[in-house]
Amino acid sequence: MNVRFDLRHTANPSAKRLLPYGWDFVAVPLIICMIAMAAIGFDETLAPMSVFKTQAISLDPARLPEYAIRTTLRMLAAMVASLIFTLAYGTLAAKSRRAEKVRMPILDILQAVPVLGYIFFTVTFLQWGDTKVVAPGLGAYIAQTTATSNFPKIILGIAVMSLFVTLFNRTLARPMYAYANSRLRLD
Questions:
Q1: CA-wise closest residue to 75 among 165, 157, 1
Q2: Model pTM?
Q3: So where does this one cross the membrane (predicted)?
């Protein structure tokens, strides 16, 4: 009896999936790098405020991926804070009718100026008296290049920001919207 295992002529179609595709050799290192960059960024967010006072914004284009990751982490933190606020506010709205006279004007203001919800997390510069704190990120990079009138680096910073906003939209915002639209619709 001659038994031979050949992936091309096997009865089990899932046996072909054991071999990696060509793009897997590109995707796996990219995912590992993104996880490492997120871990480093998260670790640096726990640094004391005194570190930010002495940290200067570098205009080296090689630092742009780091700044983009920092900005993205701040955006994710803002989204988590927004979700927590929404759940707490919605629960209060459902349980207390008397507080509606206070809640509705606050909600109207927050809806009219949505940037107020994200301002605490995505702030680039914070100044209190003589103390100025600069949070490294794409906004700080673009502001610094604008202050030095370095037009090519301004364009580069805006291009990197546009790329990360598009990636953020395609990988997180659109799938979340599609999920909510398909599963949570009240038609």
A1: 165
A2: 0.60
A3: 21-42, 73-94, 106-128, 154-173
